[in-house]
Amino acid sequence: MSFNFKSIFPFLNLSFAILIGTEALAQPKENQVQISNSVIQRNINFSAEKSICTSSLKLLASEHEFTNATSDEFYFTVNEVPVSGKNGWELKDVTDVEIDLGSGKIITLQGAEDLNKTIQLKITYLLYPDLPIIRKRLEIINLSKTEINIENVAIERLALNYGTTHSWIYKNYARQKHLGPYTGDWDDPLVVVHDIETSVGLALGNESPGVLKRTDVFTSGNQFDIGLSHDDDDYPFRKWIKPGESWTSPFTFVGVYENANDPTAFLNQELNEFVRKHIDSRISKINHIPAFVYNTWRPFQNNINDSIVYSTATKAAQCGYEEFVIDAGWYTTYGISDEHTSWADRCGDWIIDSTKFEYGLKPVFDSISSLGMKPGLWISLTSAHPNSLIFRQHPEYFVKDKNGDYTNLHSPGHAISTACFGTGWYDYIKGVISGYVKDYDLKYVKLDLSIVTSAYIDDPTHSGCYAEDHPHHKDWQESFWVLYERCFKLFDELHAIEPDIFIDCTFETAGKLQLIDYALIQRAEGDWLSNIEHPEPLGSFRARNLAWWKSAVIPASSLAIGNLSLNDSLYELSIKSMAGSLPLLLGNPIDFEDGKVDRIHQWATWLKDMQSTYDFLSYRQDLPGFGEPTEGQWDGFVRINTDTKSGGIIGVFKQESHEDKRVVKVNDLEKDKQYEILKAPMGELIGTMSGEDLSQEGFEVEIKKSSDGELFELRLID
Question: What pLDDT shows up at residue 48?
């Protein structure tokens, strides 16, 4: 990384650069901070009027400018008063910073006008080796003697050098094209703005949590904003800051590319590498990503007991499963006497149901572990029945609605109330979950149901917490941030207890249908994205479509897609399809015949071998020439280790297509090295080709059935 401090005055030379942190050079009429690595450069100017803005953003190998000096740089309101980079700011300091593998600068500013003089602002800019991506966040410090509120935050606000007419905006995980001004929401952890006239583009990354994300493109002239929801949005962001305290925003990032007719190459290469190595995802930190996971939900749902689990676990182990997760139904709560009470309404006290597990869960989990599988357990994060002991003893822990009543944020079909993470509930549920993790050596926890807003209720006023006496949020608007923040803090503390635990935080907890984003994957390894229970081939088709939709911007192995079943007659298609995300397969294996068990075991062994050899679960790329899984077409994926280029796996699928043959080409290999192509799971040699030939000529795949798929290993020959 490089950094230069310049003044436009000719008598200043480089010897003055070492004084950047001093008071003497904190207030020149005009100066500049330049941040760069080997591929990208950003110039941040301080004008004579004491404003701050990015004057240049470019690739070092090009003269093309992506932005200009008319931008605000950032924006937020303080007690409803607008504050941006165009207000007066004193430059107080510029310091080096290193966070993980990122390095850059922290620019410290002091407000110089009446409206911002009680604000100190620290702006962090981070760059990463050889990547055209710059990350940014704000820290706002309250120097006044009174509490202030922060709203309408644009962490990044830049002016583009082109407008809407020739711009394609790729929204919704960068998979859907939009024309004209656009305001992004919870489904937009990444938005791409591609200019078709100049063949350049910007990727706008937003690491804000859940329904608090907002990214605006061309809604105000040629500028874009990346930040948090506004005060007039359905789920508004607000943060109260006490005197002498500070608030740090989530990160955003901007990536740039050129000489491309669309963003495909950038998404598959630079963005893919950035997310895998630098977004700080939990899936990249865990020592072992499970290659074959079982969950009891389908077909048993809550009708489970020790006998069923023992029998199911025995067969699951024979099938080759690595992890065995007991889903909802293992517990009960005080105050519930009706045996027909639903699984959701039994939440709260988290007592092991002795009518189902007479000797508790310990012998059950001991059995699962003895069979060579890692145990897992389902728990709801904030649900409790009003008759539960915890509710009766601590009603002050629970969410209040707009009328001041206790409420269920999840769905109207259950009697539960939702607890608020901004209360003592946090310590209570932390004790419950961590207790089970430690007592049973759990390696997987599925944490579920709504904590902020519902995936099933469309009324935005039925969300958050309206209580005015909860200790960690002052009002409804602030509750959204607090509920997400403390949920993620809980995940961090669970990881401190068991670093290798796989936290599966469901889309229902995230707050919207099939929602997953950067904020979630930075704190949880996975996200249970859906409950697909269609028979094959429709079930696999839907699962592949969902994986394709999210995996352009989200690590594929964080996509826990339920509930494909091995009881389906086309179960092998299910296994092949799930190899494109987290290999999660459900079903009742108790009555599987030996031949079927052996076949599933072959697939499980192959997946585990591929993971051991290539770490394929850490990678996924689009298969060139194969697009979105679509009826009447072919689709596919590549999971090549692009760091070692030693190989990986390829998935090729046919969905009710009239074509029986397609040519498959693979990029990102060593062009002059030889690779073997082997058909899964038995390793049948299909051919040997160079990396160059695999990219240019490819190999032919034939699928005669109307809907089916094949998996292949690609192996570098030493």
Answer: 82
